[in-house]
């Protein structure tokens, strides 16, 4: 059976009907109510539909509410400003980012303008080649008609922000110190972590148990977005609620600085992180993936 998103998600499920039925398959779209022992989906018109897990052919998680392409572009613009790499350049509506190869987000080109097209791919490939980097394209769904499957399929999840009581156990720094970097346990230089364009960044920690990064940037439509990233819990402190506590503190930090909404970017196979953010109120906004610009051909466009 295809993997299911957390209960409460909006899904589209294709499933087999009993043998001899015409047509042999059906689809159901609605809110996922249960996964086991029977999948239950509440639809707008048919009530609750039950599906045996063994009959599921395909599952797709959908945004909870309809999302316009312009909303995807605005959010991706804010997210690119929040993780811009250490060098960047605009070319034919694409924002090209480089950071010595550290992290996919900081070393990829993203189409952010209505004028973005594929005619500029040779120049993008050359720009990255001059920096000894692979020319990865960060492709949010629906912004460009590219069918290439790509890698690192990612869920972009969002939630509204409301202020809560500050958590004194969570500390914030304007840049990561040695203790934060030791807990993070990833080889990413501080200059990549602290980079932000026209925004504010902070590094949260809970006494060596967990760390995370928050960045506030403004989208072209005026929405102030808080991006939560680089969340990591030390192996000796896991399953004790540290990640949840840290993220709640980051959400409050954003609310205190007039952020309207928050987003996270989570690999689609990271079920633990998806479940955590879902429990904090985050819901799917859109998907994106990475595609090597050199792999594109007329058949993939």
TrEMBL record:
It comes from Mycolicibacterium aromaticivorans JS19b1 = JCM 16368. PROSITE patterns: GNAT. Residues 159-297 form the N-acetyltransferase domain. GO terms for molecular function: acyltransferase activity, transferring groups other than amino-acyl groups. Gene3D superfamilies: 3.40.630.30. This is GCN5 family acetyltransferase. It comes from the Bacteria.
């Amino acid at each position: 059976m295809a993997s299911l998103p957390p209960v409460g998600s909006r899904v589209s499920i294709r499933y087999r009907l009993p043998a001899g039925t015409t047509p042999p398959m059906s689809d159901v779209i609605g809110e996922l109510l249960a996964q086991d022992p029977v999948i239950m989906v509440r639809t707008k018109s048919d009530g609750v539909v039950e599906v045996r897990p063994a009959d599921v052919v395909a599952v797709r998680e959908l945004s909870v509410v309809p999302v316009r392409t312009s909303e995807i572009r605005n959010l991706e613009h804010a997210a690119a400003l929040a993780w811009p790499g250490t060098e960047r350049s605009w070319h034919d509506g694409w924002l090209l980012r480089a950071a010595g190869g550290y992290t996919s987000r900081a070393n990829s080109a993203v189409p952010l303008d209505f004028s973005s097209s594929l005619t500029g791919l040779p120049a993008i490939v050359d720009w990255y080649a001059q920096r000894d980097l692979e020319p990865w394209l960060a492709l949010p769904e629906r912004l460009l008609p590219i069918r290439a499957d790509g890698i690192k399929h990612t869920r972009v999840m969002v939630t509204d922000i409301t202020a809560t009581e500050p958590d004194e156990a969570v500390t914030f720094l304007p840049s990561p110190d040695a203790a934060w970097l030791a807990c993070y346990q990833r080889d990413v230089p501080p200059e990549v972590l602290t980079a932000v364009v026209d925004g504010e960044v902070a590094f949260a920690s809970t006494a060596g148990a967990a760390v995370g990064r928050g960045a506030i940037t403004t989208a072209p439509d005026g929405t102030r977005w808080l991006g939560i990233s680089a969340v990591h819990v030390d192996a000796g402190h896991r399953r004790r609620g540290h990640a949840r506590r840290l993220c709640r503190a980051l959400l409050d930090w954003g609310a205190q600085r007039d952020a309207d909404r928050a987003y996270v970017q989570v690999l689609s196979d990271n079920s633990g992180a998806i479940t955590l953010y879902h429990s904090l109120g985050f819901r799917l906004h859109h998907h994106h993936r990475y595609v090597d610009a050199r792999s594109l051909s007329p058949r993939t466009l």
